[in-house]
TrEMBL record:
One of its GO terms (biological process) is hydrogen peroxide catabolic process. This is Redoxin. Residues 35-196 form the Redoxin domain. One of its GO terms (molecular function) is thioredoxin peroxidase activity. It comes from Podospora australis. Thiol-specific peroxidase that catalyzes the reduction of hydrogen peroxide and organic hydroperoxides to water and alcohols, respectively. Plays a role in cell protection against oxidative stress by detoxifying peroxides. One of its GO terms (cellular component) is peroxisome. Belongs to the peroxiredoxin family. Prx5 subfamily. Transmembrane segments: none annotated.
């Protein structure tokens, strides 16, 4: 009986150490929300035009002086097709940027078709910047979006995890500004007139 009593305090003393170690492990692996001054995720997971064309947007961003990165919850959805992306296509200040990258957690065939519909004058399957500033990237696994910490559970609406709606300005390969919709899908702070200013002032 006395041996049993001497073991119990040792077990209680060891317990806090196990909890502390677990806590430290959790905090170091938690994704960090993208912030001003960051570079884009260094991942070759985005697809452009076809499943075999993998793109690393971190490296692509270094080809441009500046770039607009648009994240949308779903290609062909009403708000994405009528407001968010068209707002940048039509805004006169978009011409001041070298490229506009549109990213969605969709398959590459959907993104290609959507790009051809919204920007028919451009080459939606171009691997390099062409006549159009707009490039359309599929993030089918969600890995790029998750690395930005902008993935959310959209299963109730879309059936799976999706990208939050956002607009990021990139200059010199680094994030200059970030505008993420607080409710994930709304159309307010990520719109062209909020990010670039009123179209009439251009």
């Amino acid at each position: 009986m006395s041996a049993f009593r001497t073991l119990r305090p040792l077990a209680r003393a060891a317990a806090p150490l196990r909890v502390s170690a677990a806590t430290r492990t959790f905090t170091t692996t938690r994704p960090a929300f993208v912030k001003v001054g960051d570079t884009l995720p260094d991942l070759e997971v985005l697809q452009e035009g076809s499943p075999g064309t993998k793109v690393n947007l971190n490296k692509e961003a270094t080809k441009y002086n500046n770039m607009i990165l648009i994240g949308v919850p779903a290609a062909f959805s009403p708000s994405c097709s009528a407001q968010h992306v068209p707002g940048f296509i039509k805004h006169p200040k978009t011409k001041d940027f070298d490229a506009v990258a549109v990213v969605s957690v969709n398959d590459v065939f959907v993104m290609k078709a959507w790009g051809e519909q919204l920007d028919p004058s451009g080459d939606a399957s171009a691997m390099e910047p062409g006549a159009s500033k707009f490039r359309w990237f599929a993030d089918p696994s969600g890995r790029f979006t998750k690395a930005l910490d902008l993935l959310w559970d959209g299963s109730a609406i879309f059936g799976n995890e999706r990208s939050k709606r956002y607009t990021i300005i990139v200059e010199g390969g680094k994030v200059k500004s970030i505008n993420v919709e607080p409710d994930n899908t709304g159309t307010s702070v990520s719109l062209a007139e909020h990010v670039l200013g009123p179209a009439t002032s251009a």
